Amino acid sequence: MRNVLNYCLITTFLALSIIHFYWSAGGSIGYYSSLPADENGNILLAPTTVDCILVGVVLLLFAIVYAQNPSNLNFKILKYFIKFGQWIIPIIFLIRAIGEFKYVGFFKEVTTTEFAQMDTLLFSPLCLGIGCIGIFLALKNPKTIDK
């Protein structure tokens, strides 16, 4: 069960990473519906190519965190990095799912924009799923750093 959930997270992070690299290369499919907008439809973020690349790299690192088994690593600092990542990543996504209460998350006020609809149907549930699976895996991981 843990392996299946682990592979789900790895696959999800790889897919999200590829999407961000696609956007950084000039791709536009899904790009504008992924940007928060105000009530008048004005986009609130203007990510640059570098921003998309950075997010893609971070998501790729998240996939690597879940692909590694801390007990197989020789360097203690890497073990701490992986174990820390296995806790901080789901917390980040749970916070994202809750949102900032105006434009993003389950409790947002603006609900009529294309982004708000996609956020309700896909983005926030995905973040909640990643967060819950990540917490479950972190709690169920029997391996400790000292082993």
UniProtKB/TrEMBL annotation:
Pfam families per the UniProt record, alphabetical: DUF3995
Which keywords, in A-to-Z order, does the entry hold? Membrane, Transmembrane, Transmembrane helix
Q: Which residue positions does the secretion signal occupy?
A: none
Q: Which domain of life is it from?
A: Bacteria
Q: List the InterPro entries.
A: DUF3995
Q: What residues form the membrane-spanning segments?
A: 7-23, 43-68, 80-98, 118-139
From the Swiss-Prot or TrEMBL record, give the protein name.
Answer: DUF3995 domain-containing protein
- Origin species, per record, is Maribacter dokdonensis
